[in-house]
Amino acid sequence: MNRSSAITVSMHIAGWLLFYSMVVAFIANGNPNGGSSELPLLSGPFLFFFLVFPAIFYTNRFLLIPKLFNNKQYLLYALAFAGLFLLVFWLKPFDGVINHNQGQGNVRPPDGMTGPPPFKLNEFYPQGPPHKQSKFDIMSTILFLLVWLFSSAMFVFRQWRQSEQRILQAEADKANAELSFLKAQVNPHFLFNTLNNIYSLAVSKSEHTADSIMKLSNIMRYITDEAREDKVDLQQELDCVRDYIDLQQLRLGKNAQVMFTLTGETEWKKIPPLLLMTFVENAFKYGVSNHEPAPIVIRLEAAEKELYFETINKLYEKNTPLERTGIGQQNALKRLQHMYPSKHNISMESENGFYTVKLTLQF
Predict the structure, then answer these.
(1) Phi-psi domain of 72 (left: phi exceeds 0; alpha: psi -120 through 50; beta: other)
(2) What angle do CA 308, 282, 351 make, to 5 degrees?
(3) Which one, out of 36, 87, 235, 360, has a CA that is 20 to 30 A from the CA of 330?
(4) Collapsing DSSP states into helix, strand and coil, what is residue 355?
(5) Are 308 and 300 in contact, with CB atoms under 8 Å apart?
(6) Best CA proximity match to 96, nearest among 66, 139, 130, 56
(7) Which is nearest to 170 in space by CA: 271, 281, 35?
(8) Rounded CA separation 14/34 (Å)
(9) How far apart are CA 105 and CA 202, in angstroms?
(10) Mapping DSSP to helix (H, G, I), strand (E, B) and coil, where does residue 258 land?
(11) Angle in degrees, CA 46, 9, 25, rounded to 5
């Protein structure tokens, strides 16, 4: 058990000890005439009273809220609440403790032992003891509601803390991803080659010169401005991907055989910035050759609540598996884990001389 777990367990034990010490003190002080000086803590009613509320607390905290309420099964959660409430209402654990404690006042000292005359409740209360098993155990109801609300509050607080930690970690990973992208993607080597190709187009008075400059400008603007947001429009990311592919084809010429396909609706969908660009950049960085054709497949399918993205590039002997993972790709995996902890699936495989990345996101 690590230190954090030990602290948590200690806090729970201390909390329950405080809870029951207050209840026992209330019972002992609230019944001076009918109760004994020593409460029978190992008796059946007391043991049941001590076990029922922790059982309700941890059932709600670790079973009902995570499995039902957190999965939006509100009706089942409400039925579980009602069932446990009715169970406590019917069993009346607090009333059982009070009546059992009052019954201890009629006990006679054993033979051979001196003591005060036996206390008889009917001598002081001809009409019966002042506390009888009632139809409505108000204290058990209050304790049930307090335990239920406190366990729910603990779960909500823990979820809030985890969300805050994920946000902070995602922001840190985002900053690292932006830096790694700037170093790996828009580096001086890339800019030099792209500008050199644009210069050649300008010298030859190509009609593509102005368009190439605009594409490079769009990429730089997206990286420096739009990528500051937590999420951007999917269409913006795809526009950047298209501009990047066009510039890479301009740089590589006929050796770059890129097949980019897009299906589905991309409007009103948002994703983390530079997420798809990281895998596209990885495909070009390690899947092209200056001596032979380099086929690269980039495919995206956008459904209503799901996005499927895939890249396939040829592997060359100079590229080791360690190199292919890349800093940018590692950061992308961390961002996915923090921003889509249970709503993403990714696989990266090397097979038959090709490297394939398959990513599925749920909106």
Answers:
(1) left
(2) 70
(3) 235
(4) strand
(5) yes
(6) 139
(7) 271
(8) 30
(9) 106
(10) strand
(11) 35
Long-range CB contacts for residues 37-46, cutoff 8 Å, separation at least 24: 39/101, 40/100, 40/101, 40/104, 43/100, 44/100, 45/93, 45/96, 45/97, 45/99, 45/100, 46/97, 46/100
CA-based Rg of the chain, rounded to a whole angstrom?
35
DSSP 272: -
Question: What tokens does 98 get?
Answer: 């009070």
- CA torsion, points 240, 245, 248, 250, in degrees to nearest 10? -110
pLDDT for 36: 45
- Phi/psi for 46 (5° steps) reads -70, -45
pLDDT in tens, 25-73: 766 665 544 444 455 555 667 777 788 888 888 888 888 888 888 888 8
Q: What is the pLDDT of residues 115-161, one digit of tens each?
A: 444 444 344 334 444 444 455 568 788 888 888 898 888 888 888 88
359 torsion bin: left (phi>0), alpha (psi -120 to 50), beta (else): beta
Q: CB–CB of 198/187 below 8 Å?
A: no
Question: pTM of this prediction?
Answer: 0.51
Q: Residue 176 and residue 263: Cα distance in Å, rounded? A: 31
Residue 51: partners with Cβ closer than 8 Å, 6 or more residues away = none
Confidence of residue 188 (pLDDT cuts 50, 70, 90): low
> Distance between CA atoms of 92 and 293, rounded to whole angstroms?
80
Structure tokens of 87? 């169970």
Cα torsion 170, 64, 47, 14 to 10°: value is: 10
- What's residue 307's pLDDT? 95
H/E stretch holding 237: helix 234-252
Do 245 and 280 touch, CB atoms closer than 8 A? Answer: yes
The pairing of strands 294-302 and 306-314 is antiparallel
